[in-house]
Amino acid sequence: MIVKGGTFGPVATNTYVVADGQGGSALVVDPAAGSRDWVLQTLARLEVTPIAVWDTHGHWDHVVENHLWADDGLPIWCGRGDEDWVRAPAPFNPALFGNPPPTPGVEPSRVLGADDVLECGALSFELIPTPGHSPGCWVAYSAEHGEALVGDLIFAQGVGRTDFPGSDPAAMIASLERVLALPGETVIYPGHGPWAGTLAEAEPYARMFMR
Ligand SMILES: [Zn+2]
Fold it and tell me: Could you tell me the residue range of the domain that residue 65 belongs to?
């Protein structure tokens, strides 16, 4: 499993290219504002074929370049709960996101749930429902590789905000408990801030927000 990350846009959102190996298949995860050229270069460097965009959740900053990939014919996949925001991004005050220009929504090709597996070539990820930051936040966990795409659930030193429309602070705590039950050595790739630390390293900071 190969994960390459970059940080883009007005609220420093992480975009990832996740591949099953050099020359294999890849997912474009959370295409942030201004990420496209970097993604194209990364796909080329890894000699991988993108099979889909995976949106960890539907907030504007994570889905804003969906339409550029959809225009290329790439399917857009998201988790159940935020699909309406993927269809029509920026449903709430764009000032929260640095007053970005309006962006077209995209009809998701697949809306995945807990019974689904997120697959990419030889990779398969269990989908863990983690509502709280938004209703449709999902953690994609590869038990085989001990790595997880955690979106805005948990960061290296904090957790996602729960003061947005559709946020649910109580659900957030339950979601954090669910994910903190995974092995502590699980390597996490959050939607903001540093990546490739472990869940065990992030846990003490997350716990400060769970009291
Ligand atoms: Zn978010």
Answer: 2-208
